[in-house]
Each structure stands twice: as structure tokens, then as C-alpha cells.
Amino acid sequence: MHRVTVDHSAAVPVVAAGGELDAYAEPDLSAAFSELAAETRLVVDLARVSFLDSTALGAVVRSLREIDKRGGKALIVLPRSSARRIFELTTLDRALPVAESRARALESLTPEA
Hints:
Blueprint: E1 2-7, E2 14-21, H1 26-35, E3 41-52, H2 54-69, E4 73-77, H3 84-89, H4 92-95, E5 98-99, H5 102-109
Parallel strand pairs: 2-3, 3-4, 4-5
Antiparallel strand pairs: 1-2
Helix pairs in contact: 1-2
């Protein structure tokens, strides 16, 4: 079972996912990223993800690349958890911008007033 939501309550939108993200969850994940296609700042919160396969990982990486192409910035919330393992195995934890918590990611991406 999985859950993907889009949270607009902060200054930076957040795609939050939980549960098992696999090929069945990828359409929901991609739909959330499509909803935010015009954004130049984004947080992808994977803190509640228990499993992440290559299909879902591909959707996350594509969305971050698209934001980067637009001159924007995104952060992945990836605390020390079981889902982090795929990032470590693929060394994406070193190649992609990662934050330890949603609060730190939002703080880093929120423009100063």
C-alpha cells in the first residue's frame, strides 16, 4: 500500500510519499510531480517510505532533473531508513540533493523575506 500527497501549506510545495513505492505507485507519484510541473522549488519527502523500487526512483530522479533544467532546486527528504538503501546502492544519495528532515529541506529552499 502507498500514499502520495501534495502539500501546498508551506512556502515550498512538498510531494510526500509513504508506504511501498513500486511500479503500481509510480502513476500516482508522476501525477503529483506533473501537478507541480511549473514549480522551481520542491521538496520530495520520502521519510515514510518503507520500500522504493527502480520505477518509483526513476520518477523521483526525472522530476528533480526537470526542476534543475528550469534553473530550480529540489531536495529529497531521506532520513536514515530502509528506503534510503536504494539511494545508497545506486550512490544517488551522493549525486542528488538530500536533506535529513522536511523542516531542514523547507528551511533551505524558502526564500528569505
